[in-house]
Amino acid sequence: MKRCWLIALFVAVCLLAASSGWYFLPRPLLLEGVTFSSTIRDRHGALLRLTTASDQRYRMRIGMHEVPEDLVEAVMTQEDRGYWQHIGVNPLSLLRAIGELIIGGPRSGASTLTMQVVRLRYRLNTRTIPGKLWQIVCALRIERHYDKSQILEAYFNLAPYGRNIEGIGAASLIYFGKKPKELSRQEILALAVLPQSPTKRTPVHGVDPESLLRARQRLNRLTWNDPLADLPLHYHRIEELPFFAPHSVQAALGHKKGNFCLTLDLTTQNIAQRELQQYLRDHSSAGVNNAAALLVDSESMEVLASIGSAGFWNRLIAGQNDGTRQFRSPGSTLKPFVYGMAIEHGLINPSSLMFDTPVRFGDYLPENIDGAYDGPIPARLALIRSRNLPAVTLAARLGSDALYRFLIAAEVRGLKANNPYGLSAVLGTVDITMEDLVRLYAALVNNGRVKPLRTFLDDPKTEGVQMLSPEASFITLDMLTTSEAAIRLPSALSVNLPYKTGTSTGFHDAWCCGVIGRYVLVVWLGNFNGQANPSFTGRTAAVPLFLRIASKLAADKKIIAMPLSPPPKANLLQINVCSVSGCIAGPNCPHLKKEWVIPGVSPITRCHLHDAGGLENWDCEAERFFETVGLPRKVSLSNRLNSELQILALPKVISWHRTQRSAERVIALRAQTGNQVKQLFWFANRSFLGSSERGQAFYWSPAPGAYTIAATDDQGGTATVQITVEPDQ
Fold first, then answer.
1. Per-residue pLDDT band at 635 (split at 50, 70, 90)
2. Is residue 345's pLDDT more than 80?
3. Which of 156, 254, 257, 551 has the fewest beta carbons closer than 10 A?
4. Which residue did the predictor score with more confidence, 23 or 355?
5. Contact of 292 with 323, CB cutoff 8 Å
C-alpha cells in the first residue's frame, strides 16, 4: 500500500515539474538515429524490393501528410482519445490505474500515445514500476520539446505490426501492397488495432486471426459502424515481398539508401528474363545454363532491363555474380569500331576490297576461327563474316594503339596500362563489361557519341564524348545490317537488325550486340567459372537468344524495330558501285549496287576490273587465290601467266601400306618461289596447315581423302595442286 502511495506522489511531482518546464533536461531523441528500410521501385513506381533497416526490421519513413485522416481517427479512438489535450500523460487515467492497483480490481491501460512512443523508441520494459516511472518522465520531456504532430508521426513510424514490421508505411505496403493514403476502411481498422497486441493479432497465414477480426469489428462500432468494414480481409505475407531485378538492386544499394527509383521497366525486365530462362531450358542439353542481358534506350541512355544471370539463387552457376558487370573477353564485338575508325579516316568504304589471306605482323600471325580464308572480300562482308585478317590489317593501318586509345577515351573500365594488347585487342584479348559494350553500341545510334549509362531515374543526362563522326557511325551500322548476315527474323521484327556476334578464344563467351530502333540489346552466354563449351559461339548460341528477346519485346510493344536512316544534314551520298570491285561503276561492269560514302573522305575510284569482253582483270594475288579456293572467275589470260609460285611435283594419288608406321605417313610439301619471298603458308581444302621458310619443306600427315593443296607466299603469290590420299592397301 505504501509503494502505491509513493508512485502517486512521484506522478504528482512529475506533473508539477512538467507544468513549470523541464529546462534542466536536454532535448530527447525522437526519430533521430532510427534507421529505415530502403524502397527501390522501377521507373513507373512498381516495387522492386523493400529492404530491412539496420536492425533487421521493415520500417519505412513517412510523414504525417502521408497518413489518412481516417487512420488518425481510428488510432485515437483505439488508443488515446484525449491525445490532443494531455501533456504526455493522462492524469485521470494514471490516477484510475493507481486506484485499481491499490484496491486490487481489474486493471485498465493508462499509456498515452506519447508514452507508447517512448516505450517503442527507447525499448523500455514498462511492466516494471521503475520502467513505468521512467516512461512517464520521458513522455513529459518529449511533450515539452516536440509538438503533437511530430509525436504522432513518430508513433506511425514506430508502431509494431507483427513479426519484424514497424510503422504504418511498411505495414500497409507488406500486408496490402498499398501506400497508407490508399487504404480502405477495412484495412485501416485492421492496422489501427494490430499494434495493441501484435503477437496475437498478426495475420501470419494471410487471413484475419480471430482476435484481430473481433478487435477491428469492435473498433468499427465505435467509429463508423460501416457494415462493409467487418468483411474478412486478405493479407499478403512478408515472404511474398517482391525481389525483382536482384543484381541491379544490389548494385544500386551500394550507391544509395532510402527511397529511390531505377530506370528499369519492370514489365520489360520480366519479359526479357522469362525469355532468357526459357531459352536456357530449351538448350540445357548442350550445357548452356547461364546468360546475361542488358537493354538500353540509347536516346536517354536509361537501362530498361538488366539480367545479371539466369538465376540469382542458383549456386550451381554462381548466380549472384552479375554478368552485366563482369569483365569478359568480347570476342569480335569490338571489330565494328575499328571499321568505323577506318571509314572516318578515309581508309575504306563499305565496298573496299580487303584481303582475307595469311599475313604476319611482326611476331603476330592471326588466324580466322575456322582456319579458312576468303581472299579478296568487300569490307562490308569482311565485317559481317567476322574475318580476323581484314580487321587486324585495318587496326595495323590505323596504328597498333588506335583501338586502345579509342577505348580509353570512351572511358571503358578495366583496361591495363601501356596497352599490352597490341593488335590482338580487336580479336577480343581486352576484357570488357557488358555495360561498356552496350555504351559503345549505343554510340553508333547516337551519331558517334559515347555516353554513360543512367540507372537511377534522377541521374542527370550528360553529353558524353564524341568518338566517331555521325557519318562513320551510320555507315558502320548500315554495314552490320547487310542481308547476308540476317537470319530469319521473327514476325514481330519487320526489318533486318544491325548486330554483331562475338566468340572468345577457346569458346568461353558467346555474344550478340544489336540495335533495335533506338534500343540496344546485348546478350552473353557462358560460365562465370570460365569453363569452355563448344556451344558458346556468337552465331549459334547468342544470336537466337538476342532475337528471341527482341522479338518478344517488339511483339509486346515494349520496343519498336525501325529501319536505319541517315542522320539529318549528314555528309553522306549513296552511289552506284561495281558489285565485284566496289569501285565507281565503269561502262563494262555487269552488276551494280548502291553504297554509302562520305564525299571528300571515302576512298573511291572508277572500276577498271572489267574489260569489253566481260573478263575480270584481277591482279595476280587475287587471281591465284580464286584458283586456290576453287572460285570460278572470268580471268584474262595475261593474268594467268604472271605466277612465279609453283608447288613442286606431288603424285596425284598417294597410297599407304598398312605396315607403314604413322611416322612414315608424311608428305613433304615444297614450292618454288621468287627471290623476294621469305615465307610460305600451306592450306588443305582451305584449312590452314602451317607455314615454312622459303626453300624448306613443310611436313604433313594427311588422313585419307581428296585435297586441294594451296600455297600462298608473303608476296601475294598463290599456287594449288589436287591430290588424293587412299586408304591403307
1. very low
2. yes
3. 254
4. 355
5. yes
Question: What percent of the chain is modeled with pLDDT above 90?
Answer: 60
Q: 167's torsion region: left (phi>0), alpha (psi -120 to 50) or beta?
A: left
What distance in Å separates the CA atoms of residue 625 and residue 389, rounded to the nearest whole number?
15
Q: What is the mean pLDDT of residues 332-347?
A: 96
Q: Are 393 and 355 in contact (CB under 8 A)?
A: yes
Residue 87 CA to residue 615 CA, distance in Å, equals: 107
CA dist 518 → 100, 263, 295, 442, 497 (Å): 75, 16, 11, 8, 11
Residue bearing cell 520496343:
559
Give 681's contacts (C-beta < 8 A, 6+ positions apart).
357, 358, 688, 690, 691, 711, 712, 713, 714
Domains, the chain, ranges and CATH? Answer: 2-239 (1.10.3810.10), 291-555 (3.40.710.10), 571-610 (no CATH), 620-725 (2.60.40.10)
What 3 state SS string does 673-719 have? CCCCCCEEEEEECCEEEEEEECCCCEEECCCCEEEEEEEEECCCCEE
Nearest to 568 by CA among 481, 472, 471, 502: 471
* b/e 399-433 (16+ beta carbons within 10 angstroms → b): ebbbbbebbeebebeebeeebebbbbbbbbbbbbb
CB 291 within 8 Å of CB 509: no
Let me know how long the chain is. 729
Report pLDDT for 628: 52
What does residue 101 show for φ and ψ, rounded to 5 degrees? -70, -40
Distance between CA atoms of residues 467 and 407, nearest Å: 9
Does residue 217 register a pLDDT over 90?
yes
Q: Which three cell numbers stand for residue 174?
A: 507488406
Strands (E), 235-369: 259-261, 291-297, 302-307, 353-356
Q: How high is the pLDDT of residue 676?
A: 74
Burial of residue 555, with CB atoms counted within 10 A of its CB: 0-12 exposed, 13-18 middle, 19 or more buried: middle
149, exposed or middle or buried, with CB in 10 Å at 0-12, 13-18, 19+?
exposed
The amino acid sitting at 292 is A
Is residue 163 pLDDT above 80, yes or no? yes
10 Å CB burial of residue 441 (0-12, 13-18, 19+) is buried
- At 110-160, the pLDDT tens digits run 689 999 999 999 988 877 878 888 888 889 889 989 999 999 999 999 999
DSSP assignment string, 580-613: TT-SBP-TT-S-EEEEEE-TTTS---B--SB-TT
For residue 725, give the DSSP letter: E
Q: Tell me the C-alpha distance between 145 and 143, whole Å.
A: 6
Tell me how far CA of residue 57 lies from CA of 126, 171, 534, in angstroms.
22, 11, 48
In this predicted model, what pLDDT tens digit does every residue of 589-628 receive, in sequence order?
A: 878 889 999 999 998 888 877 766 666 666 554 555 555 5
Residue 553 sits at φ, ψ, to 5 deg, of -65, -35
Taking the alpha carbons of 607, 612, 614, 619 in that order, is the dihedral positive or negative? Answer: negative
Count CB-CB contacts under 10 A for residue 634.
12
Residue among 83, 212, 260, 213 at smallest CA distance from 155: 83
The whole-number average pLDDT for the span 558-570 is 91
DSSP E strand stretches across 621-686:
646-647, 653-654, 667-669, 671-672, 679-684
Beta-strand relationship, 718-725 and 653-654: parallel
pLDDT value at position 412? 97
Contacts of 301 (CB under 8 A, 6+ apart): 439, 442, 451, 452, 453, 454, 461
Assign 304 to helix, strand or coil: strand
- Judge whether residue 161 has pLDDT over 50: yes
